[in-house]
Structure formats: C-alpha cells, structure tokens
Amino acid sequence: MFWTASNLVLTWAFIPLYYHLSYFENHSSCRLDPSFISSYISSEVAAGRYFGPYSPPLLESLIGPFMTSPLGLVPKPHSSKFRMIQDLSFPRNHPSISSINSFINSDSFPTAWGTFSATRELILSLPPGCVAATFDISAAYRITPVRPSQQNFTCISWKGGVYVDRAACFGLSSSAGVTIFPSLYGLYFPLPRDPITCTAAFIFSFLFCTLVTHSDLFSSFPFYA
C-alpha cells in the first residue's frame, strides 16, 4: 500500500461555503507571455490535472459555487522563462470575500530547505564508506492531488473559460508541506536500513547519504549506479 498525504492539501483549512460565484480577473503580469500560459494550461489538461474549460454558469451547475484565483507570471531565477502562479492569497482586504490561503495555517505545513553550507557540513561529518544519491521530482507540487470536495476553491480562469485545478499548485500556502512528506516517504523507505541515512531537500531535488555495510546492497538498489 502506498501512503500519500494527497488529501491533506486543504483538509486542515476550514473554508466556508460560498453561496455566490467568486470570480476574479487575472493579474496584469499574464500579459508578459500569454502564449506560455495557454501552452501550460493545455499540458495540464492533457495530464489530467485540469478539467475544462467550462463557462462559469455551466461549471456552477455541475459543481456548485466556486472560486477562481488570479493567475500571474513570475520570472524563474537566472532564466528568461516564467513560472505560472495561482494567487490564492487574493483578494486582500476584501470586505466580504476572503482568500483561500487566509483559511490555511501555514504553520501546520512546516517546510525547511537545505542550503549549500548545511550540505557541506553534512558530507564532512560522514564517516568513510558512505555513498550518496540524488533524486529530482519533476512537476513538483503538481503530483499531489487536491481532495475532490475542495476543488471548487482551486479554479482558474483563462480566455473566458474556467478550469478546475485538481492538484497542488504554486501559490497555495500548504503545497510545499503536503508534497515533500509523501515524496520523502516514497524515496526514503526503499533505501537500505543502514546505521546512517541522511536527507537534504533542495526545492524537490533530494540528496540521500547512507553508510553501506554490505556490497550486495548495490545490486538491490540500481539507482546507486
């Protein structure tokens, strides 16, 4: 049985039911590269992580009241590419509508990333005979589904259509916490149970260090090769 924290994305947030449509325009940063957003949405639909597009009245008739959060683009560091963000902290200071993130206690989803200095100290502290392996998780948050009963609150709008987002996204305050734990679980537990096993995480790139005491362990775990 494969354990997953998938259903925890919004479970710890008390989100009252909206009895009216909450539909917001996207941020102006979307104009930086609208073709990228269209291409990204198409790929997410093909992957089964977005459902749609629907007209707002049709979607409301299918799932009831829903809320969209504005899309935006932010540049990736040291790159000319963009990352699409769903601003679930919007609206801010609205008199009657609260954002999705305002209902989530981020302290319930603690996440700490590794640093170069900490990793250096980790490696220097290990005894001779240790080996290391690195893993990279593609699609990061997008591998973690949102509970169906709460997908009303993770909708987006683009070019007149509304899409239901079925996965954790950049912009949801609980995404990092609920994605990293099942990821570590799936990667850590196949590892040999040797006296020393250390882990460092770098935005979904993981470094594992372990002391191998039996040479035949390499044949059982080919990812060490």
Summarize the model shown.
The chain is of the alpha+beta class and 225 residues long. The chain is 22% helix and 19% strand.
Q: In terms of per-residue confidence, which ranges show pLDDT below 50 for 5 or more consecutive residues?
A: 1-14, 185-190, 215-225
Instruction: Summarize the main sheet.
Output: 3 strands, antiparallel
Q: Provide the helix percentage.
A: 10-25%
| Gap between N and C termini | 27 Å
Please describe what this structure looks like.
This protein is α+β, with helices and mostly antiparallel strands and 225 residues long. The protein has one domain (6-224). It has helices at residues 34-46, 56-63, 116-125, 175-188, 217-220; strands at 50-54, 71-75, 82-86, 130-136, 155-158, 161-165, 197-201, 205-211. The strands form 3 sheets. The protein has a 3-stranded antiparallel beta sheet. The chain has a 3-stranded antiparallel beta sheet with strand order 4-8-7, with helices on both faces. It is elongated. The two termini are 27 Å apart.
